[in-house]
Design a protein that fits this description.
mainly beta; 7-stranded mixed sheet
């Protein structure tokens, strides 16, 4: 019901910043928690951050705290992930997803609609 499209990835030097965007279509976006996830080559999918439907509550993985910021603009049907102080180990495909669970959390199985991802590459 909700279609998601990530953008904003690219190649950046260590210590640099990127802002990822996730554009959503569909009625369920503005009433759903949203999350960002990432997957590096050969590694498992990792939860990064999630945001409650109104934007009033956020939760972050430990590695993301203090460096990454999730936000949303429901009027624009868009969720963002600001990536600061990037490290080479942040290199991954970053995915946006919509949660079907009432509580905002980083449980991957809560998320039912997924985008195709955007590549973030951090050089040393």
């Amino acid at each position: 019901q909700v279609q998601l499209a990530e953008s904003g990835g690219g190649l950046v030097q260590a210590g640099g910043s990127l802002r990822l965007s996730c554009a959503a279509s569909g009625r369920a976006f503005s009433t759903s928690a949203m999350g960002w996830f990432r997957q590096a080559p050969g590694k498992d999918l990792e939860s990064v951050a999630a945001i409650e439907w109104s934007g009033g509550y956020t939760v972050y993985a430990d590695f993301a705290k203090g460096r990454f910021t999730i936000s949303r603009d429901n009027a624009k049907n868009t969720v963002y992930l600001q990536l600061n102080s990037l490290k080479p180990e942040d290199t991954a495909v970053y995915y946006c997803a919509r949660s079907s669970f009432l509580i905002t959390r980083l449980t991957q199985s809560d998320y039912k609609d997924w985008g195709q991802g955007t590549q973030v590459t951090v050089s040393s």
